[in-house]
Amino acid sequence: MNELFTPQLGPLILYAILSGLLGFFLYTAFRLAWRYGLPMIRRPRIKAWLLQWLPMVEVLMWVAFVLLSMGYLIAANFVPGLIFCLIMIGGFWPYLLNLMGGIMIRMGNRFRIGQRVRINQHRGLISRMGLMEMDLEIEDGQTVVIPYHQIPQSKVILEDSEEEIAGHTIELAIDASWSIAEAHTNILTEVMLLPWTSSGRLPIIEPIIHDSSQALYRVVLFSSHQRYFLQMEQRLLKHFASRKLEAVRRNGH
To answer: Which member of 7, 28, 146, 252 has the greatest number of CB atoms within 10 A?
Structure first.
């Protein structure tokens, strides 16, 4: 009977080492995927799909890791392990609710980055969908953080519709060393990564000038509301200006 209440030091040490190694591997793998893997993907629809679903895959992997660790701990030290696990569940219960809520929301596939919604008294654009909450950029430019567990109890109105999509034309000066195909792909990728871009219509991208010394493109942006076009234009101009500067430095001009 005492064995149920007495911690077994050998299994505990082994559990700590294995859990630490596995946790470090999971953390490193997902951080590398976010930091280096996603930027290497050039197809915007695939990248958008990964941005939508990779957080849920990460959550599921961490949930599986925690459950396996708890099972091993209870098997090796039944009563102390069970008490410890119950204390941990109680302490992290609000976070667990948000993690589970995020999984269910992504499985329902009703929300996406760039969508206009009204959640209770807040009306705006979904600019981020994290592991435990989403960011809603409201009309005055402020960001409201909404935990996932609050959404099922909230009044939610999905406002994005094809009739609301507006167009805006800008001119982009880009790196002239790119081919026309590379320029089109790079511009399309950056536009589709903007949270305000309409998911219902792809941007129109047309070369105005493209030779060995200069590349200027006409880009028609589509969004759910015209108020977002200034932010979209500023982001794109800043991004491609920095890319041009990097190319000049690289070529030694």
So the answer is: 146
The pLDDT of residue 75 is 72
> What is d(CA 132, CA 135) in angstroms, rounded to the nearest whole number?
10
Sign, CA dihedral 152-156-162-165, equals: negative
Does the pLDDT of residue 118 top 80, yes or no? yes
End-to-end CA distance of the chain: 79
pLDDT class of 10 with cuts at 50, 70, 90: low
**In whole numbers, what is the pLDDT of the chain averaged over residues?**
77
Q: 54 φ, ψ to 5°?
A: -60, -40
Q: How many residues does the chain have?
A: 253
pLDDT of 162 reads 46
Angle at 190 between CA 58 and CA 231, to 5 degrees: 105
Find out whether 40 and 50 touch, Cβ atoms under 8 Å: no
Q: Which of 89-98, 130-139, 167-176 has the lowest mean pLDDT?
A: 89-98
For the segment 48-53, the average pLDDT, to the nearest whole number, is 72
Residue 107: strand pairing partners: none
Query: What was the pLDDT predicted at 236?
Result: 92
Structure token pair of residue 56: 């849920």
Token pair of 183 as six digits: 């320029």
95 and 129 Cβ atoms separated by less than 8 Å: no
C-alpha distances (whole Å) from 124 to each of 140, 152, 222, 225 are 9, 18, 17, 10
Q: Are strands 215-223 and 156-158 parallel, antiparallel or unpaired?
A: unpaired
Rounded to the nearest 10°, the torsion over CA 88, 92, 93, 99 is -130
d(CA 11, CA 40): 42
Residue 202: DSSP 8-state? P
